[in-house]
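Lab notebook, bench 4. We co-purified these components, and the gel suggests they stay together. Before we commit to crystallization screens, I want a quick structural picture of the whole thing.
Request: model the full complex, all chains together.
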Amino acid sequence: MLLIDPSKKLSFTQYIRDGDLVIVYEKHDSMKAIKACETSVLQNRFGVFKHSDWIGKPFGSKVFSNKGGFVYLLAPTPELWTMVLSHRTQILYIADISFVITYLEIVPGCLVLESGTGSGSLTTSLARAVAPTGHVYTFDFHEQRAASAREDFEKTGVSSLVTVGVRDIQGEGFPDEYSGLADSVFLDLPQPWLAIPSAGKMLKQDGILCSFSPCIEQVQRSCETLRSNFTDIRTFEVLLRMYEVREGKMDCGQGDEGVSLGSPPYKRRQCSNESRKVHENTSSPVVMARPCGESRGHTGYLTFARLKCH
Ligand SMILES: C[S@@+](CC[C@H](N)C(=O)[O-])C[C@H]1O[C@@H](n2cnc3c(N)ncnc32)[C@H](O)[C@@H]1O
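Here is the predicted assembly.
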């Protein structure tokens, strides 16, 4: 459950109930989504966890196994869902998702059209962004994928904010009933230029379109098509770089005992000359920061364009 109450405002149900979706967090790259069920257990390398111990606890709780191991029980936000959902297709990740939502200017109440739905990673964040009064109409021509996405939206609690349609958007375009109603349109399709004319018809005056493509050749072709009806056409590549920041000792010219050095770490600039002297003279701990090796590289290009006013 994404903890959205469509009748009110975004809200968090504070306590875990029987049947709630919970994100079991071991560490940032080891999480999974589990439905809490009074009679079930979770078994992992830390031991056996009884779900009955989870029910009634607030989200965010640390819970213990029979062997004293622990995990955290997190509320299922769209950001966490993106990290645990089952990949039926390539998906968008949070760096691209957050950029898309900002640049498409999506706010509560917006009507958004999307194709393809894929694994519903972006759709889930779109749903929360338009809640409680907006709606996302998402289309995929793959029936099974559309059905699985619907099931996921039920599971995550956003189904009242999302309608999944089965349709070949490149071939048929978006349904006429949305003509002139969409605040924004998002395309993640292999040949987006085929869907751009229809997307243009769906947008309100001044509405914005975004197309995600992994290859620059797709971008070039889309931009060519966009030029006839759109303005302010801009393409971005969002590159996310994580940093590891921790304390370590640094002896002049000797490297660092506590920190294994892949690339040279940056030493934190000290506030005063006095404290700099202390650090340089005594090799006391300093805060080291350096880019992580596992940073995510190219995912795709995001092309944005605004419908020309006639
Ligand atoms: C890469 S996935 C989209 C992933 C999605 N953005 C996410 O974050 O989970 C692309 C989807 O487009 C769908 N697709 C491809 N061609 C299509 C078409 N002509 N009409 C509708 N959907 C199409 C595919 O079935 C696939 O599910």
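Residues 183 and 207 are 5 Å apart (CA to CA). Worth comparing against the SEC data before the next meeting. Residues 89-92, 115-116, 118-122, 139-142, 145, 168-171, 188-190 surround S-adenosylmethionine (CB under 6 Å).
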